[in-house]
Amino acid sequence: MLNSCRGNCVRFGSVVKESGVNFAVFAPYATQVYLCLFDTSGHSQIAMIEMYLHEGGGWSVFVEPLRENTLYGYRVDGDYDPNTGRLFNVHKLLMDPYSKDFFGEFMWSERHFCHMPVGTLSTLDNAIDMPKSKVSNISKYVEERPNHAWSKTVIYECHVKGATFKHPEVNPAFRGKFLGLSDPAFIRHIKRLGITTLELLPVHAFVSEQFLITKGLRNYWGYNTLSYFTPHKSYLVDNDITEFQRMMATLHEVGIEVILDVVFNHTAEAGIDGPTLSLKGLNNLGYYRHVLGEPSVYINDTGCGNTLNIDDPQTLRLVLDSLRYWVEVMGVDGFRFDLATILARTEHGFNARHAFMHAVLQDPVLSSAKLIAEPWDIGPGGYQLGAFLPPWREWNDKYRDTVRRFWRQDEGVLPELAKRVHGSNDIFEHNRRGPLNSINFVTSHDGYTLADWVSYENKHNLANGEVNRDGHSENYSFNCGAEGFSTDMKISSLRIKMQKNALATLLLSKGVPMLAAGTEFSHSQGGNNNAYCQDNRTNWLAWKSSQLDHELTFFIQDLLAIRKQFSVFQHPFYVHSDDSRFSVSWLDENGEQMKESDWHSEGRKWLLYSIQDRQLEEALFIVFNAHDACLDARLPSAPFSKHWQLALSSCDSAKYDNAQSMCTISAQSSWVFTSLKEGNIHG
Fold first, then answer.
1. Tens digit of pLDDT for each residue in 91-105?
2. Structure pTM?
3. How many domains does the structure of the chain reveal?
4. Less Cβ crowding at N or C end of the chain, within 10 Å?
5. Angle between helices 489-507 and 551-565 (to 10 degrees)
């Protein structure tokens, strides 16, 4: 027999107590909220209990003798009037926004829509198609964390399923799951590469949009959140959310951090014509942004139908509580915030000193986590690269585009390329940030893979079912002589070399480097530059034997070894002419300082520069030649040793006679020379 009484709203969600469970939810304009309990099958509602209203709009009830694993949901009664923004409908079972676990699968049906058509109250009960929230009581994460400094961080962006689903050496039961990422075979690979940090595409429970399901597709990337606290269930082996903690513990033990890509800009409920699943049925006006004076019209700065309203104190609390939960309980090390501009947007626009930014900065848990912003959205004034404040890092798309344009042989790129490899001081230094605030990348999940960047000049997205209209049209790409797959050895060889050139630029630039999964063995998506809905071989990494020992893998290893050895890449500040320790010299092909006219000389498609550390007596000389002709270059005098040593080149046949000061730099190639005091090896 169940007994219920007034509970408390100290913590929202379901909290296990000694004799029962406390349930609390925020619905300030509801006339009544009901806790609905279900049997273990999730099919039958066995109780509907009235909850108690608290000051401020919270509702609670304490029920005994309930325990962990109890299945439940909420029904909310109140006004239904889209014109006032209130969408209460007691016929709709809602998921608890704070549920740490749930049972069952989400199924699309007309029953999820509280209005059919808009403006008409739907009396259809959706419980049969809704997952049931599940009472969870897992312990906090207690394992030791690697805590890598940003100066030593190398990020590997990957998808939980795609990373291991086809890996022949991963435990078959773990492939495509959280536990696959902590399988010894996958760990060996990323450790061998030199990776310190995994950045996982969204792992918050998500659903596929209805329009994708009707096309036989699904949301593969995961940017369509259903629950901000629950791990995506298809990534679990035995439907046990503690598997995520097990993954974290194993990765931490071998020195690998995990950053989550999180989507606190919109939810799966879409706009006014979307389903009512959770937030919309509890406090629609508070959780989402609406056009001023038009409560039925959602602001759509995300392109996904709705925009989360971080200005609202309870929405802000929801986001902070979720972030803190993933750090304290699930064990993650940081977050990459999708469309992060929205997190700091008010009705007046972006504000770097938004309440969310202040809250994170003063939070004892979150202030020590790694925080990365994707600094743009599609709203007004949405592009804010460089506007975030410490300790935030930012995805630097200007870095990506500049490197791509340089190697594509675009005119007039040299001055900007120098800024990008130097850490983008023009973007970050104005608010006292350094080069390590720039997350440098050439490719990511969004857009071409590195292999496709040198294989396709036009996007090939027909499989997405949008008549090739989706995805960016300007990718600064080139196909090396043939569109798509080619058996021509000359084309194939050039493509590998150009990928090496991009990798050399990326991994020897100041900033924090990020590699997209599969880059190390030339993974291709067949020219699809928006493969968000392709849960198939387009996205799954093909772990063939030839790819486990790919030449790009070894090239990345060598580059990261150089990066680790040379102190300039760990230096947290920009190097200027008055620096007492470091110096950077931009040189022409004669070994002389570049003149102003050189920077803007038409047809100059090469960059030569040296970096010196006078304290450790070490130096690098780097040559990037994007021209399709060889370059005869005179090397400057080698400091700290008798001669420059050729450390690495993207050319298989690269040779350098260190007795000579001249070197022929092959067309479309990268060269790295080192000069160190004898015996000066460190890492």
1. 999 999 999 999 999
2. 0.97
3. 2
4. N
5. 20
